Input
Amino acid sequence: MCPHCTAINRTPVERPAETAKCGACHNPLFSGKPVAVSDQSFATHLQRNDIPVVVDFWADWCGPCKMMAPAYNRVAAELEPHVRFLKVDTEAEQQLAAQYNIRSIPTLMLFREGKIVAQRAGALDATSLRAWIEQNVA
Ligand SMILES: [Zn+2]
Output
């Protein structure tokens, strides 16, 4: 799924996903950065992805969230395009926070084919974050 225009793209296996571009808006499908999602685009990201999707539920007023942001960005750059990284601002998207029963932030969730396969609360450094993801997608 294109993070820019939300078009669904099929990436050919013979071409590296790093260079894949959206058929609709021609932007790169993977920027190596987490994608901020809204209520609407979130469901599409989860359901129309055959790669694992990691979600960071965060808020602007949350100190630990801000502390973790550089680590999250770094691990996104390392693991994309094998894993998609999303960010949900729980202040702007309160419905999503309620739907996923977010009680403390940051909360990390890992989805496969729209289903939660792992979740944890609290900030992580880059090494622990990467280990947590790899352990749960293996
Ligand atoms: Zn697009």
Summary: Strands lie at 35-36, 53-58, 84-89, 107-112, 115-121. The chain has a mean pLDDT of 91. The pocket of zinc ion is lined by residues 2, 4-5, 7, 22, 24-25, 27 (CB under 6 Å).
